[in-house]
């Protein structure tokens, strides 16, 4: 039985995430478990999710990502970030994007996606990103 769709294609925040995530080399979008996921071979971002231990109250505007290992501890200390259900055990973090409305906020999202992409993508895709 397929998972129900847990997002709205007209969601403006999803549109912003898509635009940024799909700009990375070789990236594709695939619906998995009812949510948009962004992949370059493997998954590097998920739109929507829930906090670990709170699977009954999903955050529809959350972005789940793989943080840069050197920044993970600082991000965990920031109240805006959380350990997500299911993928949190594998080092992923989440951020609720519902209040991201400034250019600086979206620049931060792009940086988070960039760090996640670099953790997951094959070397050739990272090289293509660096080549511009």
Number of domains: 1
Secondary-structure element series: HEEEEHEEHH
Q: Report the portion of residues in β strands.
A: 15-25%
Rg: 14 Å
Top CATH class = Alpha Beta
What sort of overall outline do the alpha carbons produce when their principal axes are compared? globular
Largest sheet: 6 strands, antiparallel
Read across the widest sheet, the strand sequence of neighbours is: 1-2-3-4-6-5
Mean pLDDT: 93
What is the third-level CATH name, the topology?
A: Aspartate Aminotransferase, domain 1
- N-to-C CA distance: 42 Å
Secondary structure tally, helices = 4
Class of secondary structure makeup: alpha+beta
- The CATH level-2 architecture is identified as Alpha-Beta Complex
Poorly predicted regions: none
Helix content: 25-40%
Protein name: MmcQ/YjbR family DNA-binding protein
GO molecular function: DNA binding
Keywords: DNA-binding
Pfam families: YjbR
Q: How would you describe this structure in keywords?
A:
globular; 6-stranded antiparallel β-sheet; alpha+beta; YjbR-like_sf; 132 residues; YjbR/MT2646/Rv2570-like; Aspartate Aminotransferase, domain 1; 33% helix; DNA binding; 4 helices; 6 strands; single chain; DNA-binding
